[in-house]
Design goal:
The complex is a heterotrimer of chains A (274), B (451) and C (321).
Chain A (H helix, E strand, L loop, with lengths): L1 H32 L19 H9 L2 H33 L4 H10 L6 H13 L7 H23 L5 H8 L4 H12 L1 H16 L3 H6 L8 H12 L3 H21 L1 H14 L1
Chain B lengths: L1 H19 L31 E8 L4 H12 L3 E8 L1 H14 L4 E3 L4 H5 L7 H7 L6 H5 L2 E2 L10 E2 L2 E5 L2 E6 H6 L9 H13 L17 H11 L3 H7 L10 H15 L12 H10 L4 E5 L3 H7 L4 E4 L12 E2 L2 E5 L7 H13 L1 H9 L4 E2 L15 H15 L2 E2 L9 H14 L5 H18 L1
Parallel strand pairs in B: 1-2, 1-3, 10-13
Antiparallel strand pairs in B: 3-11, 4-5, 6-11, 6-12, 7-8, 7-9
Helix pairs in contact in B: 2-15, 9-11, 11-18, 14-15, 17-18
Chain C lengths: L37 H29 L2 E2 L7 E2 L3 H8 L1 H32 L6 H15 L2 H11 L5 H8 L16 H25 L4 H9 L4 H12 L1 H16 L3 H6 L11 H10 L4 H26 L4
Antiparallel strand pairs in C: 1-2
Helix pairs in contact in C: 1-13, 2-13, 3-7, 3-10, 4-7, 7-10, 10-13, 12-13
The chains are: A mainly alpha (274), B alpha/beta (451), C mainly alpha (321).
Chain lengths: 274, 451, 321
């Protein structure tokens, strides 16, 4: 297996190179963030006097605590409700198999490829007429709707594979459909649900378009939208912008590193099932 | 089976029908109604004594509005501020949407005519009368006046106010000027060209300018050149949307060709299409360019960062001793027609122009001439500073009646959709001067006539 | 962001039949559901359907409606018929934005998929090593962070004084150094590179995990027949990965056509209109130029374009076994 060995080394080298390219932007952000505020450092150049205080400054300028709170509130509004609605519908279409399921499933599936830009204009006027502009609901409610195709699709794929004998035996014990769903099927769906939860969390947290169009106050936006506003305000100060960007992407990064296995699996499944 | 299906079909139809029924009738129609005129006021309004929070939407990167608001709260402690900041390009994009749906009490405005057309701005005539703004030099307020319906600018009712009025021209780095033997500011365009050529051969970039992203900064030198080659009146007519006005005139073609000559001669940075305003400022301060076409809003900043090393002159005319012109515009702020605290906002605007402390802040921090009556006391400015020379330049422009608004302000979209991309193409050699003006003019016609 | 893609198979399991696939039995009784009245099933579906109808279907219908009017978003509107659509296809700037999105496919899709395939097959042998496990985490980072952050970081890297030019300088290529995002000829490719960076890791790992499911005996058999690596790759790897490749292509093509975040942050569509894409143009038209009708017409074209591109890819790569 001498050939195999050389191949393995080429593989390693390639992998390391690829990782370097992946990490390069992060490194550049980090090094730039340490330069004196207001300066224009060139390239990747370690500052003579690293300004760690920039992170503190950016933390205050971006009002990180409030930003995190806002994003958490939005995620709490979107994810549990999307999971619930998606599971209910997925259960009905995949397991209860009521008449007309194919039609309604098709209606949902058609929304899978929808680019958000396609409906952002009417959504703006609709949200405005509901009096929700500049509230977190302006992001939460449309996102739940926009996540329905994927949520239903995902949960249906799970329920389609659940043996019906399970329900039959519970039925014999006298359980009604709701008990059947809540006591037997939801607990069994936990792996699928948690993967879906991770995906929805990520997509909500990083949602940009809805945030910048529907909410003007950065403190009521998602993290990603707030970063847009931060760039608008501090884009003239490169080191501060870099420090702020790093801070803003830290929460997802930390959560990713803690739950990385679930994340990777979820993302892989997510794209495969999709 | 069939009964069930019908039931389901009905359910689906109810859900869909109920929510989709929206699509009947044309969109729109809830537009704000025009105010008759600015209602006349019995007495000049104040901010009262009860706690008030003014919502302001200002431009980031310029400390003046913040300093003013802080001082205002010091003098009127019942007034608190809720300030949102964005870059100017972002404000321009957001203006109609924000004014209509999230009305601030005070907002930095781009071009006002379309906002007036849609009745988004408060008519300030009532305030003008109550505070006596009508007795100030008329030129200060001219650019913010609009004829009924927002058709033509420069006359009619007042829809915005300035925090000060700015003056544009050419800043230069004195050390670099010494190096090429330029002892005094050029007095003709030919002398300016000469200085640039000398700088170029001395290895100095002649012009520090920005042209990147959504902000085509070459509009500054271009309009200055237009004013050198021709009179400023027709340019103003075009900006004010006077019927029949055109930007595509022979002298403007000459001006654009002159700009192209500078581009081809390599007088700008090679990456100018990627340089934004802040980058330009930082490079100019570092000494990476001899001239910079900019405005006196930077005077205070430059006096601090390049103390003693920076000079200012008005764009020289083609002929020695010819009339000079400059873009001079109020730092425009408006009040939303739906603002909650319009009276207090108006009181603040009046205070900015008349309070001695506010006028001092306006000059020291803002670097520009304050608004207000002609005989209002002027704050002291140290001799030899660039702030002093920009204020002097203001007097010369007033004498030559050479004040112009900015060509980027002709319509709401003309800067982002026409000037910026066209000037970027000119830099890249993908557009000719003749076609550039034709293209801008055709966009202008469709924007003015179309919407 | 990984965007879901449609599955054209309605009511058939979406899981791919691999070694671990469960074989399900369908009892005839099942077709009628669990002896539960359909009404109950519809009650379960109703909440999802209502939210979806209000916040997605209704706006889609409204977009189509708006696209037939001239409207500034504030005042009254006037009927325009198909005029807005005619303009979308005849106005050079608007049509160029669609072309730009199509060109971005080369970077968002072709590079990640082709490069991803090459990398995945090279590192297949070390797929279980510790290095590969670390790589799995690292290569996923771009998927996790907001695209806005990626845009900010890359604008900085690609600026005239950025790291990319610095590196070019080290290898003696100062001549090609430039402000990559500010140059007419390189701005669009530079935006494309940002997208490729975001999507390459995802594709590589997706393909890699697909490769690990290929039966090794297939390769052994091929070796016996004297096939070289390239041959192996073409006749075994690629066909076995049809579904994964399909997923990569679909996800990345949609990301290219519907790109917004990266362009908004890095170039705002400039210089000139060199990097204008439909998503950004819709945003500008609708909210700053207030041509809501035109924005909506472009939005309808974009939605149709995405469906027209995504469906055939799905159909071509569907597992037909």
């Amino acid at each position: 297996m001498i050939v195999g060995r050389r191949e393995a080394w080429t593989g390693r080298l390639l992998l390391v190179l690829l990782m370097a390219v992946t990490l390069m932007p992060f490194l550049s952000l980090f090094v730039t963030a340490l330069h004196p505020s207001g300066s224009y450092p060139s390239g990747l150049e370690w500052p003579s006097d690293p300004q760690w205080g920039n992170f503190v400054k950016a933390f205050q300028a971006a009002r990180m605590i409030e930003l995190i709170k806002s994003s958490v509130l939005i995620v709490l509004g979107v994810v549990p409700l999307s999971l619930l609605l998606g599971t209910l519908a997925g259960f009905a279409i995949g397991h209860l198999r009521m008449a007309g399921r194919n039609l309604v499933f098709l209606v949902f599936v058609l929304g899978l490829t929808l680019p958000f830009e396609g409906i952002i204009t009417p959504l703006y006027y609709q949200v405005r007429d509901m009096g929700l502009l500049n509230t977190r609901w302006a992001i939460i409610l449309p996102l739940i709707g926009l996540f329905m195709p994927f949520g239903v699709f995902w949960m249906r794929a799970h329920f389609v594979n659940v043996p019906e004998a399970l329900s039959e035996s519970a039925r014999i014990d006298g359980a009604n459909v709701w008990q059947l769903f809540w006591r037997i099927h939801v607990p069994l769906a936990m792996p699928a649900l948690s993967s879906l939860a991770i995906l929805l969390f990520l997509w909500t947290w990083n949602q940009f378009l809805l945030a910048i169009v529907l909410v003007d106050d950065p403190l009521k936006r998602t993290m990603s939208g707030a970063l847009g506003a931060f760039q608008g305000q501090w884009g003239t100060d490169m080191p501060l912008l870099c420090a702020g960007s790093l801070l803003i992407l830290t929460p997802t990064l930390v959560i990713f590193l803690i739950f990385q296995r679930r994340f990777v699996t979820a993302l892989l499944q997510g794209s495969l099932k999709g | 089976m069939s009964r069930r299906t019908r039931w389901n079909g009905a359910a689906l139809a109810v859900v869909m029908g109920g929510t989709l029924a929206a699509g009947c009738g044309a969109p729109g129609g809830d537009a704000p109604q025009p105010e008759a005129t600015g209602a006349s006021l019995a007495a000049a309004p104040t901010c009262g004594t009860a706690p008030v929070t003014l919502n302001a939407y200002i431009e980031t990167g310029f400390p003046l509005p913040k300093e003013l608001s802080t001082e205002f709260s010091k003098q009127y402690p019942n007034v608190k501020w809720n300030i949102r900041e964005d870059q100017f390009a972002v404000i321009t994009q957001n203006a109609p949407r924000v004014l209509a749906d999230d009305p601030p009490d005070l907002m930095r405005l781009p071009q006002v005519s379309e906002l007036v057309k849609n009745n988004l701005l408060k008519n300030l005539d009532g305030y003008a009368k109550a505070f006596g703004w009508d007795s100030w030099p008329a030129s200060q307020l001219e650019q913010m006046r609009l004829a009924p319906g927002g058709k033509t600018r420069g006359e009619g009712s007042l829809y915005a106010m300035g925090l000060n009025f700015s003056m544009t021209g050419v800043f230069y780095n004195k050390k670099l000027a010494d190096k090429i033997g330029m002892s005094s500011p050029p007095t003709t365009l030919a002398e300016l060209d000469d200085a640039m050529a000398k700088a170029k051969s001395a290895g100095i970039t002649p012009i520090a300018q920005f042209n990147g992203g959504a902000t085509g900064g070459l509009a500054f030198p271009l309009q200055d050149l237009m004013a050198s080659y021709g009179p400023s009146g027709p340019i103003n007519d075009w900006i004010y949307q006077k019927p029949g006005a055109t930007i595509d005139t022979p002298s403007n073609v000459q001006a654009t060709q002159h700009l192209e000559k500078w581009i081809k001669a390599g007088y700008f940075w090679k990456d100018i299409n990627a340089v934004d305003y802040a980058t330009m400022m930082s490079r100019f301060i570092k000494g990476e360019g001899l001239f910079s076409f900019n405005g006196d809003w930077e005077s205070g900043n430059l006096d601090k960062q390049m103390a003693g090393n920076v000079g200012f002159f008005l764009m020289p005319p083609v002929q020695q001793g010819g009339k000079q012109a400059a873009m001079s515009a109020p730092l425009t702020y408006g009040i939303s027609s739906r603002a909650k605290n319009a009276d207090c906002a108006a009181f603040f605007l009046n205070w900015v122009a008349t309070d001695p402390k506010a006028r001092e802040i306006g000059v020291k921090i803002g670097g520009s001439h304050p608004m207000g009556p002609a005989d209002a006391p002027m704050p002291e400015v140290a001799e030899g500073t660039v702030t002093a020379s920009t204020l002097d330049a203001g007097a010369k422009i007033a004498q030559d009646n050479g004040s112009m608004d900015f060509i980027a302000n002709a319509t709401g979209a003309i800067y982002a959709k026409s000037w910026t991309p066209q000037l970027q193409k000119l830099v890249a050699g993908q557009q000719t001067p003749e076609e550039l003006l034709k293209s801008v003019q055709s966009d202008y016609t469709s924007q003015v006539g179309g919407s | 962001m990984t965007r879901p893609t449609p599955d054209s198979a309605v009511d058939s399991p979406a899981t791919r039949p691999g070694p671990a696939a469960v074989t399900r039995k369908r009892s005839p009784a099942r077709a009628g559901g669990l002896r539960t009245p359909s009404r109950v099933g519809w009650l379960f579906v109703a909440p999802a359907l209502i939210v979806y109808a209000v916040f997605v279907l209704r706006p889609i219908v409204l977009t189509v409606q708006y696209s037939l009017y001239r409207w500034d978003g504030i005042g009254p509107s006037t009927w325009a018929g198909l005029g807005n659509y005619v303009k979308v296809f005849t106005d050079p700037d608007l049509f160029a934005s669609i072309l730009n999105a199509v060109k971005l496919i080369a970077f968002f899709s072709v590079i990640p998929v082709v490069l991803g395939l090459a990398i995945a097959s090279t590192i297949r042998r070390i797929a279980a090593s510790r290095l590969a496990l670390v790589a799995r985490t690292v290569l996923f980072l771009p998927q996790v962070i907001p695209l806005v952050a990626a845009g900010i970081a890359w604008s900085w890297l690609l600026s005239s004084t950025g790291l990319v030019n610095q590196l070019l300088g080290y290898v003696g290529l100062d001549g090609v150094a430039r402000a990559w995002l500010g140059d007419f000829s390189t701005a669009l490719p530079a935006v494309g590179v940002i997208g490729a960076w975001v999507l390459l890791g995802l594709c590589t790992i997706l393909l890699l995990s697909g490769m690990s499911k290929i039966d090794p005996s297939l390769y052994e058999a091929a070796r016996m027949d004297g096939a070289n690596s390239l041959r192996e790759f073409i006749s075994i790897t690629v066909p076995s990965l049809r579904q994964e490749i399909g997923v990569c292509v679909t996800v990345t093509v949609i990301a290219a056509l519907a790109s917004f975040d990266i362009v908004y942050v890095s170039t705002q569509g400039g210089p000139g209109n060199a990097t204008m894409v439909p998503g950004l143009e819709i945003y500008y038209l609708a909210f700053s130029e207030r041509q809501v009708g035109m924005a909506s017409a472009l939005a309808v074209v974009l939605m149709l374009l995405v469906i027209l591109v995504a469906l055939p890819i799905q159909w071509l790569t569907k597992d037909r076994s």
